[in-house]
Amino acid sequence: MAQVAGIKVERAPGGCLKFVTIDLRKHADFIPLLQQKGVEVDEPVKWSAKMQRALAETEFKLGDINNFWDE
User: Fold this and answer.
1) pLDDT at residue 1 is higher than 70
2) Measured distance CA(26)–CA(36) in Å, rounded
3) pLDDT tens digits, one per residue of 46-55
4) What's the CA gap between 33 and 50, in Å, rounded?
5) N or C: which end of the chain has fewer CB atoms below 10 A?
6) Please, are residues 43 and 29 in contact by the beta-carbon 8 Å criterion?
7) How far apart are the C-alpha atoms of 52 and 38, rounded to whole Å?
């Protein structure tokens, strides 16, 4: 059987098909089929510019384990 890029078929020890892994970035035409079968495809979270700045400016303070409760 020929290999298709982005699709991986796994078989059980007995030889029957068990799992299929599909890279949906390469095969986006499968998404409507999955939605018809009841798979919920959520839209990606759209972060605002303010939220992106807040995530980029996170504070990190290296603490001392001996003075953990004093800070």
Assistant:
1) no
2) 19
3) 888 888 888 7
4) 36
5) N
6) no
7) 32
